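Now for a concrete sample entry.
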Amino acid sequence: MSWSARREGWNPQTEDARDDGDVDYSRVIHSAAFRRLQGKTQILNLGDSDFYRTRLTHSLEVAQIAGGIARQLAKSFPDHPASALLPDRGTIHSIGCTHDFGHPPFGHGGEIALHYCMRGAGGFEGNGQTLRILGRLENFSEKAGANLTRRTMLGVLKYPVAFSWVNNSDLIPALLVAPTTIKILDGQACKPPKSYHDSEQDIVDWVLALLSASDREAFQSYISQPGKHGRSLHKSLDCSIMDAADDIAYGVHDLEDAIALGLVTRDGFASAVQDRCPTFLDALKEKYPGESANDVFSLMLNGLFGGAASRKRFIGRLVHHFLTAVEYVENETFSEPLLRYRVRVRDGQRQFLDALQDFVVREVITSPAVQHLEFKGQAMVIAVFEAMQADPVRLLPRDELLQFEQASGDLRIICDYVAAMTDTHLLKTYERLFSPRMGSVFDRL
């Protein structure tokens, strides 16, 4: 009974020099789920360019930033009690690399589509699927998935509440009623609650087994929200480090892609951040007085919207600005130190980071150019899922059919299969099932 324990017994070879974090990281890097991230969308559609980020490169960046945050906290707060608890590099890199394992093809659009497909069958949520993959589906153990340490699994548990607890029963996944010739998802009704799947309750029980009853009750508390799903309130120290790193990577690196590919304008960016970046401008004036002269805001714009070299330099400065602004916060509700302490980005820098994220969402993610592709991806996810559901004996690959039958027809097995697909695998499966072109028995299933 320790944070380094694994659900299934495992003993390293006597000559193995790795510690627990190293072992977890090796299993993550060598997992099938990690390799699949190279074929899953971050924001833009695969095939448009070989420059921008996929889920794989994004996850590697999150892991690197999370490791940097841990090192920075140790340096900035050497006497803080939480600094003695900071995760080793292997553990935090494992958490960072796995945080997107459960995302299905076509990102959040695919997540909404699968939640619709799983209505009445336990729902679907990407973070919940990550826990399921690591705790059950990977093949490093007989019945414990990747069989990672309890501490790593606690760091992966981003939303420690069950689907059935926070699901608002009034929000029933459905189609829009207005169209008459095509079926379109109601995006708001199909948005899943941030939670773990009820089917993984035994995994969560094991992860939280070291907590006192009062700590566990508090850790799994949530608030109800009128017209929305419930929202969890807490995450562990390690998870909060990963979450901060994810926000930084999302706000800064996705902005870099958008600028490099000409999807946003200098004037639009300037208007969005002008009043929300004083901490960064002050840092530029202090650290680079020879560059800034009097107009430091223009310096930032010229750097980001200039050539590739200046853009990369300023992207690095942005990451450093946010990474070094991470600080500890304490919640005295908890006695367990891994829950008592967590981290956040300081308010001034947080305001600027939020501005970057809001800008990317508004100008790129919700733009028609991206939403057209997401719309099409959702339709393909639903079509493939429903075809497999309608005639599993005929259409499911043999290995998945065996699992489906052993699980007495549990739709979660079909959901696992579709969710694991890369964007290209889903597209080819859709074409094989629905395109008029001739197929081949040699096409990959």
User: Anything to note?
Assistant: The domain at 20-236 is CATH 1.10.3210.10 (Hypothetical protein af1432).
